[in-house]
């Protein structure tokens, strides 16, 4: 194996070692009391190694989101014309759930840490916004030929994120013991019932934006200039997030 190939092969273990060292220190000392120098000292590497993988200390708390966002973008880009758009973005959101479910212990630790550190909560909101923009960008393309298509795309994207995060946080509060997949499927079912089925005149379609089977539909009114993260938070509150 060449030296460059060996270096490539060594990258994932180094990255994982930095994440493990960071969370060990966060749990022992607290997030604010832990420095990048502390993390690299415990991991046995230099500062350059840390910044090769993570631009900041905040990024080490969310090590897999860039990969997940790339996977989501690729998934949406690979969509076919016959794919029902709302179902497609719901399936894209499930990629985020899969990332969390890959390592429940780490995900629960991160959830607890994020609740304790306001700066990390703000960082997390910025990550959520990027997911929402990816979903909305796909939907805008699919709804481009329809009146109000941009608004519909943004509303559906916000609803998908709110429903997904409502179920995800419920699972995290259970310490990862509940059935995350079932919870997310149930939450996203509300979105598909309210906004899916594209045929005009069909329940849930553009002429009848109501849920099938007598399910309730939540209508949220917000200022035109309200930031999307605030709309998402309000929607989560209405859906019953604790």
Task: Give the number of domains.
Answer: 2
Q: Report how far apart the termini are.
A: 52 Å
Weakly predicted, low-confidence segments: 3-12, 198-215
Number of strands: 0
Annotation field: number of helices: 11
Average pLDDT works out at 84
Query: Main β-sheet, in a few words?
Result: none
In which range does the helix fraction lie? 55-70%
CATH homologous group name of the largest domain: Tetracycline Repressor, domain 2
Any idea of the CATH class of the largest domain? Mainly Alpha
**CATH architectural group of the largest domain:** Orthogonal Bundle
Query: What form results from the Cα inertia axes?
Result: elongated
What attributes does this structure have?
242 residues; mainly alpha; Arc Repressor Mutant, subunit A; Tetracycline Repressor, domain 2; 2 domains; 70% helix; elongated
Description:
Helix 6 (85-102) runs parallel beside helix 9 (149-173). The chain is elongated, with a radius of gyration of 20 Å. The longest helix has 27 residues, at 3-29. The protein has 11 helices and no strands. With 242 residues, it is mostly helical.
Brief synopsis:
By secondary structure, the chain is an all-alpha fold. Helices cover 70% and strands 0% of the residues.
SSE topology:
Elements: H1 3-29, H2 36-43, H3 47-53, H4 57-61, H5 65-77, H6 85-102, H7 104-116, H8 118-142, H9 149-173, H10 180-195, H11 228-239
Helix pairs in contact: 1-2, 5-6, 5-8, 6-8, 6-9, 6-10, 7-8, 8-9, 9-10, 9-11
């Amino acid at each position: 194996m060449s030296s460059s190939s060996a270096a490539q092969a060594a990258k994932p273990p180094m990255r994982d070692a930095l994440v493990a060292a960071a969370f060990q220190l966060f749990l022992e000392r607290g997030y604010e009391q832990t420095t990048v120098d502390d993390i690299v000292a415990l991991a046995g590497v230099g500062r350059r190694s840390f910044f090769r993988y993570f631009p900041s200390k905040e990024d080490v708390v969310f090590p897999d989101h860039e990969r997940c966002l790339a996977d989501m973008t690729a998934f949406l880009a690979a969509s076919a014309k016959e794919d029902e758009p709302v179902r497609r973005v719901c399936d894209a959101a499930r990629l985020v759930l899969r990332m969390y479910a890959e390592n429940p212990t780490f995900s629960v630790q991160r959830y607890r840490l994020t609740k304790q550190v306001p700066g990390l909560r703000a960082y997390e909101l910025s990550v959520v916004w990027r997911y929402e923009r990816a979903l909305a960008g796909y939907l805008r393309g699919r709804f481009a030929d329809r009146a109000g298509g941009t608004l519909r795309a943004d509303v559906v994207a916000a609803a998908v994120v709110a429903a997904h995060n409502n179920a995800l946080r419920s699972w995290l509060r259970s310490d990862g013991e509940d059935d995350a997949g079932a919870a997310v499927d149930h939450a996203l079912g509300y979105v598909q019932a309210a906004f899916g089925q594209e045929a005009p005149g069909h329940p849930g379609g553009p002429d009848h934006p109501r849920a099938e089977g007598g399910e309730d539909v939540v209508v949220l009114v917000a200022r035109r200039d309200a930031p999307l993260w605030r709309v998402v938070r309000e929607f989560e509150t209405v859906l019953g997030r604790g």
